Backbone:
């Protein structure tokens, strides 16, 4: 009973979110400009050409009707055809997905353990040199802009030392019908710099969060009791403190991961990493409405799914959430 | 083991002085404290807040935070000095030779780990030779020993699935896991209901008798001391004022402070003292539905309250709506003090909050005078707010920390004046005088006041709003015993002077008997028993009422 209402609630929420997102996106892209002028050749097109293109794209209809047509198409699984590439918009997004997914995943796989580890140690040794260093470093890491960080990484990691390539995805291998960089050594090599650029601010964020969590949990009675019952400090830290600080950390990881899928555009551009973020920005500039809408929908769905995963993790982690419906 | 080793004390604290360094400089916490604990003995350490008794317990455990500095003295355990040990040696000692039980059973256990695993990891930590299977068997054995029914099945349950008493039993099982020589028990029963407290104390005594473990029992409760300790150390402001056998301390205390502490414990009178009272004990008194003889100021009928099940999207896992209150009837005669007694979860606080208009009820009606109030709404909309004032349990969180005493009282007066009764700022001063608050305190902020002073401000605040009814929810349980008595007397007298009516909510039968003319006993959200005070404490044969009365320490009933 409890589970079903939670799941229906979630779907309802997701549905409302998608409707709201599509409305805002639709009206937004509509008010930016008329895509017809990006499609016909302005130099040579006659007014008749423009008119025909407008009718062909359905742009002569009032906006509410255009929106309904869009919804109708989406329900039948069709996001329309890109005005620019003349390919199905959804396929375009799917084609960019592997690049984004592997970049974000590698960045998070670096950030989560490093951030949590640093935070745990800093929190345990509060006030020491190590703690102060972590705190100060995290402030700088959070406040420097990502484009500057990315350029510094290129400067140091690629130009001065020549250790890493400065951009591109390198060689890829095919898996599930898509091209992935992380399956080849050369591709992994290309991942290092962009993934670090995305990971560094997240390390700082996660470290701060887990540091304050550690300090809070270590002051609780059950940590004191664990010490009184003779457990080693290491065991207390890993088996008691870590699970107890995990809930906010996992929430942040989920949110940040979603953000990286959608909005890593700066890093993607600088490292010429052809991902979803770059696709979105390019499409907005070209007023390629089907692609924009397909990308936004994908991002919204990804956020909803990530949130559901985070909740699931909470239930796995915290018996009070998991078992309350059974009592 | 030689004869000498058996008689030598297991734990010896000599001339121990500790101070706490903060930004304001060092504050002495303990000065020149000495005590001895023998094998198989329960030594009580009693004192009020600030006596340094918990610090002493932590010092023995080696768990003092780095801000504490030992300036003199030694703690000797089994011939070895704890102060000179390395942290590694202390870890080796903890759990195996010296273990602990803390006050808050909810916070003592890791909420994310099953209780069985927590006992098991302790078994493994104290005995590295144990196999995983043997540790599990040991853990089950320990759980059974402290009285957890069906330990195999409950092994995998989590702390929140146990009641408070059971959780404290699990904590005790963990403390026993290393077969320690000493258990430092810091207020082990203070967070528990009286009936459960009794069972836990009994368990501790049994364990001492069976295993020969010694217990250093830190408490503020003379009742606990009288129930199980062999010897007592009385502490005040970081010093030992008296130490002797429990009998001697209780019957012939040598020190003034000890005498004051014992005298401050409210005593429950069971046997009817006079023939007049004996007669009263046979009559229950008017029922809540009312026979209409004495004028009732407030009549509450059929008050019910359900918890949970709000909304359907966000009701994460909350499946069944819990019943907080079921069909409660209460009748308050004008100018009387009526007691509500119950254990935790009995719904007494919920009822008080509904009466004060702070929370809505699911069903029922409240009449004050001729007016009927709509109690399905909370706050301003039900009209109760202001006519009923509340005094809360913990004064340290019920005063606005950013308002001075004068501002707090002034707000109350202006509110009362708005309700149509004339009062002026002079009243605040008069009220402060009446409640024994020095006038110089009026410019202070709550954190600059003692617990007793804060609660006096709360009382003044409630009285100055000139309500018809005051609901006092455990107004003394966050205070020290010696302050409790003053507050209770003050509250009783000023209510009578002001001609107000009061509901006094408490878990402490003795205070209720002292304060109230009639008593309602709540259990699981219902009125289990009610009647005049003489009837409840003398004549009622309700089994639950009897259980509550019997749970009182015998020394403090007569």
Residues:
């Amino acid at each position: 009973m409890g589970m079903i209402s939670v799941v229906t609630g979630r779907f309802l929420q997701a549905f409302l979110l998608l409707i709201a997102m599509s409305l805002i996106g639709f009206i937004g892209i509509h008010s930016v400009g008329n895509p017809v002028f990006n499609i016909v050749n302005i130099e040579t097109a006659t007014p008749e050409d423009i008119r025909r293109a407008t009718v062909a794209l359905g742009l002569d209809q009032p906006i509410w009707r255009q929106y309904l047509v869009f919804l109708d198409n989406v329900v039948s699984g069709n996001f329309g055809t890109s005005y620019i590439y003349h390919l199905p918009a959804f396929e375009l997004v799917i084609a960019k997905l592997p690049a984004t997914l592997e970049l974000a995943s590698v960045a998070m796989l670096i950030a989560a353990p490093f951030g949590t580890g640093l935070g745990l140690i800093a929190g345990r040794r509060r006030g020491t040199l190590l703690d102060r260093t972590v705190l100060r470093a995290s402030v700088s890491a959070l406040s420097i802009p990502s484009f500057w960080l990315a350029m510094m990484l290129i400067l140091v990691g690629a130009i001065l030392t020549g250790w890493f390539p400065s951009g591109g995805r390198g060689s890829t291998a095919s898996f599930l019908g898509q091209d992935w960089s992380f399956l080849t050594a050369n591709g992994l090599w290309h991942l290092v710099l962009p993934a670090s650029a995305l990971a560094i601010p997240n390390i700082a964020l996660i470290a701060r969060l887990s540091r304050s969590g550690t300090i809070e949990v270590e002051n609780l009675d059950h940590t004191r009791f664990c010490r009184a019952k003779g457990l080693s400090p290491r065991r207390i830290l890993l088996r008691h403190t870590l699970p107890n600080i995990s809930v906010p950390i996992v929430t942040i990881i989920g949110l940040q991961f979603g953000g990286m899928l959608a909005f890593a555009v700066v890093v993607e551009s600088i490292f010429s990493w052809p991902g979803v973020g770059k696709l979105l920005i390019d499409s907005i500039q070209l007023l390629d409405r089907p692609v924009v809408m397909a990308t936004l929908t994908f991002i919204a769905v990804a956020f909803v799914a990530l949130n559901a995963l985070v909740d699931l993790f909470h239930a796995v982690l915290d018996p009070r959430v998991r078992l309350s419906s059974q009592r | 083991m030689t004869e000498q080793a058996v008689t030598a004390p297991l734990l010896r604290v000599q001339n121990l002085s500790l101070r706490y360094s903060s930004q304001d400089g060092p504050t002495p916490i303990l000065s020149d404290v000495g005590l001895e604990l023998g094998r198989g003995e329960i030594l009580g350490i009693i004192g009020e807040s600030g006596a340094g008794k918990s610090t002493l317990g932590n010092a023995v455990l080696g768990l003092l935070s780095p801000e504490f500095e030992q300036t003199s003295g030694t703690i000797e355990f089994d011939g070895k000095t704890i102060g000179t040990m390395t942290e590694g040696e202390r870890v080796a000692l903890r759990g195996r030779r010296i273990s602990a039980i803390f006050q808050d059973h909810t916070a003592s256990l890791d909420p994310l780990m099953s209780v069985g695993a927590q006992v098991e990891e302790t078994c493994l930590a104290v005995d590295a030779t144990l196999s995983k299977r043997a540790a599990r068997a040991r853990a089950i054995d320990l759980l059974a020993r402290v009285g957890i029914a069906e330990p195999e099945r409950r092994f995998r349950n989590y702390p929140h699935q146990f009641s408070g008493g059971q959780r404290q039993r699990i904590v005790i099982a963990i403390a026993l896991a290393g077969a320690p020589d000493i258990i430092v028990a810091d207020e082990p029963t203070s967070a528990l209901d009286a009936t459960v407290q009794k069972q836990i104390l009994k368990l501790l005594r049994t364990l001492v008798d069976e295993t020969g473990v010694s217990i250093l029992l830190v408490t503020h409760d003379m009742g606990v001391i009288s129930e199980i300790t062999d010897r007592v150390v009385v502490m005040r402001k970081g010093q030992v004022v008296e130490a002797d056998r429990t009998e001697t301390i209780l019957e012939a205390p040598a020190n003034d402070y000890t005498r004051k502490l014992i005298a401050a414990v409210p005593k429950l009178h069971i046997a009817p003292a006079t023939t007049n009272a004996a007669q009263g004990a046979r009559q229950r008194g008017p029922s809540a539905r009312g026979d209409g003889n004495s004028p009732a100021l407030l009549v509450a009928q059929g008050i019910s309250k359900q918890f949970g099940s709000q909304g359907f999207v966000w009701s994460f896992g909350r499946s069944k709506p819990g019943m907080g209150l079921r069909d409660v009837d209460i009748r308050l005669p004008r100018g009387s003090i009526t007691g509500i007694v119950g254990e935790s979860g009995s719904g007494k606080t919920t009822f008080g909050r509904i009466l004060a208009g702070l929370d809505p009820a699911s069903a029922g009606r409240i009449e004050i005078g001729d007016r009927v109030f709509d109690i399905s709404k909370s706050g301003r909309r039900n009209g109760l707010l202001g006519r009923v004032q509340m005094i809360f349990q913990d004064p340290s969180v019920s005063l606005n920390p950013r308002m001075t005493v004068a501002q707090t009282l002034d707000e109350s007066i202006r509110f009362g004046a708005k309700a149509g009764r004339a009062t002026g700022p002079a009243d605040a001063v008069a009220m402060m005088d009446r409640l024994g608050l020095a006038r110089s305190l009026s410019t202070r902020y709550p954190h600059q006041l003692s617990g007793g002073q804060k609660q006096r401000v709360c009382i003044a605040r409630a009285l100055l709003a000139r309500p018809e009814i005051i609901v006092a929810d455990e107004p003394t349980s966050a205070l020290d015993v010696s302050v409790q008595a003053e507050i209770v007397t003050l509250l009783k007298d000023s209510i009578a002077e002001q001609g107000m009516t009061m509901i006094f909510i408490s878990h402490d039968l003795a205070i209720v008997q002292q304060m109230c003319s009639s008593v309602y006993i709540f259990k699981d959200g219902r009125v289990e028993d009610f009647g005049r005070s003489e009837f409840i404490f003398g004549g009622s044969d309700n089994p639950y009422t009897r259980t509550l009365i019997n749970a009182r320490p015998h020394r403090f009933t007569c």
Notes: Chain B touches chain A through 41 residues (CB under 8 Å). Residues 222 and 262 of chain B are 7 Å apart (CA to CA).
